[in-house]
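I would love for you to help me understand the pair of lines that follows before we discuss the fold together.
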Amino acid sequence: MSFIVSEITIYPIKSLAGIALQEAIVEERGLQYDRRWVLADEQNVFITQRQNEQMALIDVQIEAERLKITHRVKKIAPLIVPYLPQTTDYKTITIWDDEVKAIRVSDEVDAWFSTVLGIKCQLFYQPNDSIRLTDPRYSITKEEHTSFADGYPILILGQASLDSLNERLAEPVSMKRFRPNIVFLGGEAHIEDDWKYFSIGEAQMVGVKPCARCVLTTIDPETALKGKEPLRTLNQYRNFNNKVLFGQNLLVVKTGKISVGDKIQF
């Protein structure tokens, strides 16, 4: 049985729209540029669509040495976010149970996001020397680290898993609901639950923990409207110990380039 990478997606700014790629570089903390930026409130606590679903309407593009940010609905000028922060304002950002050192990007960037989202917020970047260790209970070397992702460097999800869910739904949902980094074709639904060590392109990864899903999956990524699905249906057949599991969290064993069309090798 063969498994083929069909989609690669990064989410440079946590909880904003993703960017589909044909190839990506796997780094120790995840795909290059993936969730290296995060929005935080006045208490330096991270903000996601859980608090403000309007974040789903903000698109991100990668340009030369910068990000271009646009709003899908509001008539507001695009925002340019340079890769290198324009301040030396270091803060400790709280994300779940972790505290992560980060640098505020700029006053202009903060003003744009505060206006668009209707809340006072600031954008922070995680520099290379900011190391956020992953949960030691699911670590291989105890040295694996990650970005501003919820907890692990990479999320993989099989197309068959989504197809199985959509067969149960009155209205199908897109893969965007689940924000995976890697989507693959082949195999049965949820076959990724049991994956351990495997290679894609030049990179090697290891599955360590199925991904527990939250209310963010109930927000339509195209409209930012919130409902009860697909979480309600998933809860009927993917509930394990009161957690709805969908997709597999990965740690990085070996860095390198991966591409759409690569075979997954075990």
Observations:
- The mean pLDDT is 98.
